[in-house]
TrEMBL record:
Name this protein carries in UniProt: Pyrrolidone-carboxylate peptidase
Purpose of the protein: Removes 5-oxoproline from various penultimate amino acid residues except L-proline.
Reaction equations catalysed: Release of an N-terminal pyroglutamyl group from a polypeptide, the second amino acid generally not being Pro
Subunit note: Homotetramer.
Species name: Candidatus Cellulosilyticum pullistercoris
Length: 213
């Protein structure tokens, strides 16, 4: 089995991106799972182009994209991506789309077809803070999640894919009082557990993971 896992370059004035740092620390294999690691730009459009090139080359069974969500206390597999780009800041090439569809004729939204609850449970059972998220935002993270799922639904129905947000690492919060963070080693461990859960669960487990808002 092949898993393509992607991480963004730093953005928003940060010197590092914990998503990229964590995925690059993953081993090249986990059991019989081949891990293909890919850095992608925090840029609308170009991020998806780079993923598409990697999909064409490697033909992975699973695609997992990972992004930074400063302020979150745990690793959070995303449930849904929506068909909208609505950027509150510029991406790394100065693009700032407002109320623009990711795919003009695409569905309103796509749900992840990864076992997000099994992934979350695997992390929590290992002592890593984690929760299911019901919003991937409207920046490049959601753009990538939606674009990948659209590609899967329309071109690669045998593939599975989704998105995971991770917290800041400690080096990013030295000047951010009361902001949660997680060590890069724990983020990497959590992502490895997610990969294993995704590879071993063809269907998700049935446990509560909803949110009030």
């Amino acid at each position: 089995m092949k898993v393509l896992i992607t991480g963004f370059d730093p953005f928003g004035g940060e010197k590092v991106n914990p998503a990229l740092e964590a995925i690059m620390a993953l081993p090249d294999t986990i059991g019989d799972i081949e891990i293909i690691k890919l850095e992608i730009p925090t840029v609308f459009g170009k991020s998806l182009t780079k993923i598409r090139e990697a999909v064409t080359k490697h033909q992975p069974d699973i695609i997992i994209s990972v992004g930074q969500a400063g302020g979150r206390f745990g690793i959070s597999p995303e449930r849904i991506a929506i068909n909208i780009d609505d950027a509150r800041i510029k991406d790394n090439e100065g693009n700032e789309p407002v109320d623009v569809k990711v795919v003009e004729d695409g569905a309103a939204a796509y749900f992840s077809n990864l076992p997000i609850k099994a992934m979350t449970q695997a992390m929590v059972s290992a002592g890593i803070p984690a929760f299911v998220s019901n919003s991937a935002g409207t920046f490049v993270c959601n753009h990538v999640m939606y674009g990948v799922l659209h590609m899967i639904h329309t071109e690669y129905p045998h593939m599975r894919g989704g998105f995971i947000h991770v917290p800041y690492i400690p080096a990013q919060v030295t000047n951010k009082p009361n902001m949660p963070s997680m060590s890069q080693a724990d983020i990497t461990k959590g992502l490895a557990l997610c990969i294993e859960a995704a590879a071993t669960h063809t269907e998700d487990i049935h446990i509560a993971a909803g949110a009030i808002c």
